Request: fold
Amino acid sequence: PVIITIYATLALIFAATPLLAQGGENTSWRLRPAFQLRLGPESARNLNLTGFSFAPASSERQLLERARFGVRVESPVGLSGLVQGQWYGRWGGTDSRSDFDLYSGYLDYRRGPILLRVGRQDFSYGSTFFLGPNDFHNGLAWDGLKVGLGPLRGLNLDLVGVRLTPLNPGDQGLVLAGLYGSYGRGRNEYQ
Reply:
């Protein structure tokens, strides 16, 4: 149901663009395919790779595989969207599994220094140690709303209200709400 809703919304954006464009504005669309493949062999002694716990006198090997594929759609009137599926596999070890998920699926609206994003998305804040996309395995995706603001040159603010998407066994529906700010030289992310 979620992926059908996203595809239907993207189709609506395609249909509405001529109505939203002003006069002689460019009404061309851009489609950008996206693909990523990661393979990661792992081996450990005295460690359980599934729970990252001490396991004396044992050894474990596994192969991690992740493929992401999708398309980003951009309209000339500030509307855009991304739909990205993911296949994740863990082979060997004590926790072999293979899953297919909708990793990202969101709609953006940009107007000046403001971004409004709704849907399934990931975040990369700071060094991503505490809040990032968990790029080692199958990722962390969040369902909800993000409002991005670039009020001053170099200042970026993100206001988020999201819930963790259960991509991993044992993931709980954690809720994240707050404000993240960053300042650096150069232009704003939202301009």
Remarks:
- Strands lie at 30-48, 53-74, 79-92, 97-111, 114-121, 142-149, 155-164, 175-183.
- The two ends are 33 Å apart (CA to CA).
